[in-house]
Design goal:
Elements lengths: L2 E5 L3 H12 L3 E5 L11 E4 L2 E4 L5 E2 L1 H7 L12 E3 L2 E6 L5 E5 L2 H12 L3 H24 L11 H9 L9 H9 L2 H8 L19 H6 L3 E4 L4 H14 L2 E3 L6 E5 L2 E7 L2 E4 L2 E4 L3 H8 L7 H4 L6 E9 L9 E4 L4 H11 L8 E5 L13 E9 L7 H20 L7 E7 L1 H8 L16 H4 L11 E3 L10 H15 L1
Parallel strand pairs: 1-2, 1-14, 2-10, 7-16, 14-20
Antiparallel strand pairs: 3-4, 5-9, 6-9, 7-8, 11-12, 12-13, 15-18, 15-19, 16-17, 17-18
Bound molecules: flavin-adenine dinucleotide.
Flavin-adenine dinucleotide binds next to helix 1, strand 15, helix 14 and helix 16.
Length: 485
């Protein structure tokens, strides 16, 4: 039986382990942490449970697909579709309900912002068009194999490229189509789904709203961590071997192949090696003497996050699972994140409350608030000072918008910031989504899913093609399993 070693048990590593197992490999996963899931993990304290990383679940079919690749192996994985996906709050008291049903959302916008429902629907159809034109090429295939370019579907995508707004920023496209600043802000926010800046990132990223309005947003029973748990249990049932607290220190190579992975001073041999690590520490630590793909490693990182996990001794009827409290000057907020490498004094605040769906995530009469703002990737900022300032600004924003000073209701607190994200998952500079998608050809410049130097070395996860986020990390695992063939 051929042997495969997977380095890292993030979502991409778990999915790769299952897919290679289904191809008959003996698969061993080595994970530096004592638990699987990487960024997709959970924390708890004082009777509160929090999903520590991802909170928005789209394209559940990608998880289902992995959980069905091996005949006779079954695990439970249940989820509900969200009726109202997100509630948007503005400083002047306007509240827009982001219904998952596109028509209902368009009616809501017409009523609250006086933008015609027809214009909203037209904008959403454009988003669907971008998805239908590009998804197969950009999300399902390796962009770095010549064979990809000799297919009819690729040809069709390329013919339509001039209509995909590659040469304008998301903001320009949204402003032209929607005009109303509040609605433009709402659509610009989708750039943050891959850690980008809507004032720079190409309009093709307007594909993202289609995921919510066209394909739907979901929430797994037992929370986001259930995705990790399901994949992990499925892999174990299928016979994948896991090693935790098992950091791979180095790879040995010979004649264009990786021969072994070093763990606790021992060299473990295998036929195929799959890295689920962020590519930057991978090259720097595991292959220090190899030629580095310097251009790729120097790419701008995506944004990171500052998160306060707050156990709140109160319930808020005005809030749902996903809530956004918008900043008054969105452009300035992104100027701070990407250019000044700091945090604007009036940040957009995201409040995720999983106990709205999963009652056991908080004690009775309480709620588990995951309060996040977008911040720059780590470049040596004084995070202790920034955290103190940001906490004050966030509390003041919540006070202004919800008309409640929540500080006295916080009975549990935990904090995650870029340096901690890097420490816990080895993600370079604590970026959430690997390299940013701010450049128009970013999709083509991400690290490929294979190595140009070593024929049996492959890459999956959010720092390589097709990019960050749960669905894309799962796609990367599928592409890897096809390339291994
Ligand atoms: C705060 C936050 C919010 C997010 N929100 C969303 C969201 O709402 N929706 C969404 O879809 N995505 C979201 N994301 C992004 C999503 O979490 C990631 O894109 C995805 O989980 C990345 O998975 P991955 O496969 O790249 O592995 P990672 O999660 O990056 O895990 C990599 C694993 O490799 C291990 N490792 C590293 N080095 C070694 C080594 N030398 N030896 C062994 N193991 C090693 C690490 O310990 C880690 O467990 C969010 C991320 C964060 C942090």
């Amino acid at each position: 039986m051929k042997k495969a070693i997977i380095i890292g048990a993030g979502i991409g590593g778990l999915a790769s382990s299952i897919r290679l197992k289904s191809k008959g490999y003996h698969v061993s996963v080595f994970e530096a942490n004592s638990y699987p899931g990487g960024k997709l993990t959970e924390i708890s304290g004082n009777g509160f449970r929090f999903d520590a990383g991802p909170s928005l679940f789209t394209m559940p079919e990608k998880v289902e697909e992995v959980l069905s690749v091996i005949n006779g192996v079954d695990v439970d994985f249940e989820y509900d579709q969200l009726d109202e996906v997100c509630r948007y709050f503005y400083e002047d008291g306007t509240v827009v309900k982001g219904w998952g049903d596109a028509n209902k959302f368009a009616q809501e916008v017409e009523e609250k912002l006086q933008v015609s429902a027809k214009d909203v629907m037209k904008h959403l159809s454009k988003s669907a068009f971008i998805y239908e034109t590009t998804a197969e090429l950009f999300l399902e295939k390796s962009l770095h194999k010549l064979s990809t370019y000799f297919s009819l579907s690729t040809f069709r995508s390329f013919v339509k490229l001039p209509f995909l707004n590659i040469n304008s920023s998301m903001d320009k496209v949204n402003t032209k189509a929607l005009k109303h600043p509040k609605l433009v802000q709402l659509f610009n926010r989708y750039a943050t789904y891959n850690g980008s800046n809507p004032y720079v990132a190409p309009g093709i990223l307007n594909i993202i709203p289609h995921l919510e309005f066209g394909k739907g947003a979901y929430f797994p029973k037992n929370g986001m961590h259930a995705i990790t748990q399901s994949l992990f249990h499925y892999a174990k049932k299928a016979g994948v071997e896991f090693h935790f607290d098992a950091k791979i220190e180095k790879l040995e190579t010979l004649s264009g192949e990786v021969t072994s992975a070093r763990y606790m001073g021992k060299d473990i041999k295998a036929d195929v090696f799959v890295s689920n690590m962020d590519v930057v520490p991978f090259y720097k630590n595991l292959l220090p003497n190899s030629k580095l793909p310097q251009k790729i490693l120097n790419q701008e990182r995506s944004s990171s996050a500052l998160i306060f996990y707050w156990g709140i001794r109160k319930e808020f009827e005005s809030l749902i699972l996903h809530n956004i409290l918008f900043s008054e000057n969105y452009k300035e907020e992104f100027e701070y994140i990407f250019n000044k490498k700091s945090v604007y004094h009036d940040p957009t605040v995201y409040i995720n409350i999983s106990s709205k769906h999963n009652k056991k995530d908080a004690p009775k009469g309480c709620e588990n608030w995951f309060v996040m703002i977008n911040v720059p990737a780590d470049s040596g900022q004084q995070w202790d000072d920034l955290i103190t300032t940001c906490k004050r600004n966030i509390l003041s924003k919540i006070h202004r918008i919800l008309k409640v000073d929540i500080s006295s209701f916080i009975e549990y607190e935990n904090i995650l910031h870029p340096q901690l994200i890097q420490n816990k998952t080895s993600s370079y500079k604590g970026a959430l989504y690997g390299s940013s998608s701010n450049k128009k050809m970013a999709a083509f410049f991400r690290h490929p899913n294979f190595s140009n130097q070593y024929s049996n070395l492959f890459f999956c996860g959010g720092s390589v093609h097709p990019g960050g986020g749960i669905p894309l990390a799962l796609s990367s695992a599928k592409i890897v399993s096809e390339l291994v063939d």
